[in-house]
Specification:
With 210 residues, the chain is mainly alpha-helical. It has helices at 11-34, 50-58, 79-97, 101-115, 124-128, 156-168, and strands spanning 181-184, 195-201, 204-209.
Length: 210
Amino acid sequence: MAQRRRSPRGSSAADRWLLLVLVAGFVAVGIGLVGPWPAPRPPATRPLTMAEARASNAAIPIDAGRRLAALPYRFRGGTAERAQAVDCLATAALYEAGDDVSGQRAVIQVVLNRVRAPGFPKTICGVVYAGSTRATGCQFSFACDGSVSRRPIHLGWAGARLAARRALSGHVYAAVGRATHYHTDWMVPYWRDSMVRVGRVGTHLFYVRT
């Protein structure tokens, strides 16, 4: 009578290991299809009140050592280009600082600093109106919120244009150094803590990149 062939030694153990590997593979695929689980959203933060924002800003010191002197700006364009640059500078100065002479000079200096800084347009009007044609927003809010179409008529224009012409002839406003960013003291922009504060003019705080 023919003898029954025996299974090779260990074949049952190998089968079990193969089954375990297949099960583990299916489990891994299943996890990949349904996961990973999304991280919980952080709780929404309450907007700061004006008093809270001012208190937060007051706690950050001015680093005068980082307030490097800006170089004089010499405009090289022709008569028409200069007139356009003066108008762009004066518009930014007036809408951002009103008729405050020091504030106007500070805003003008920031615009000129941006023209010479990497990552910004290389013309004065390009800096002033940066973002006005994009949905992502403007560098200066007046260029996007319709303020320009409601241009005010008052004595501030004469002072703003005078400050612009002086700046284009090489006058430097040293109080803000080479600052490229600023904000009012009653708000806390998202970028504040990633920059270094180098000056204050009225209610405006000025910053340079780290």
